[in-house]
UniProtKB/TrEMBL annotation:
CDD domains (alphabetical): VOC_Bs_YwkD_like (cd08352)
Record protein name field: Glyoxylase I family protein
Keywords linked to the UniProt accession: Metal-binding
PROSITE patterns documented for this protein: VOC
Annotated ranges, domain VOC: 2-125
Length: 125
């Protein structure tokens, strides 16, 4: 029917919480600490749509990224204006790749990354 949510494990909960809420602007739906797992769980939304579960766990292994490894390749967000979003993220201190054109759709997009180097794509709707 549709994707319900995406789960992300971060290495530094405070840094990633700030990134996803203050830099990207996702809204907090719920935040809990699970003592038995020594784990935070933060439910995040875009608008009214629940989209990301952000987890912390003690000493998670690093994410293999380059060269590309099996698993989630990147997380893509749709935006109305790619140029404006890129400039906004650069002003907030992110390193953003140059804007590219999707050879199949003709739409603009660019990549940046979260604090744990998870590639994030911003794609023109």
């Amino acid at each position: 029917m549709k994707i319900h949510h995406i789960a992300i494990i971060c290495s530094d909960y405070k840094v990633s919480k700030y990134f996803y809420t203050e830099v990207l602007g996702l809204q907090i739906l719920r935040e809990v600490y699970r003592e038995e797992r020594q784990s935070f769980k933060l439910d995040l939304a875009i608008g009214n749509h629940y989209v990301i579960e952000l987890f912390s766990f003690p000493d998670p292994p690093k994410r293999p990224s380059r060269p590309e490894a099996c698993g989630l390749r990147h997380l893509a967000f749709s935006v109305e204006n790619v140029d404006e979003k890129r400039e906004e993220l650069i002003q907030k201190g992110l390193i953003c790749e140059e804007i590219r054109i999707d050879e199949f759709t003709g739409k603009e997009f660019f990549f940046t990354q979260d604090p744990d180097q998870l590639p994030l794509e911003f794609y023109e709707i």
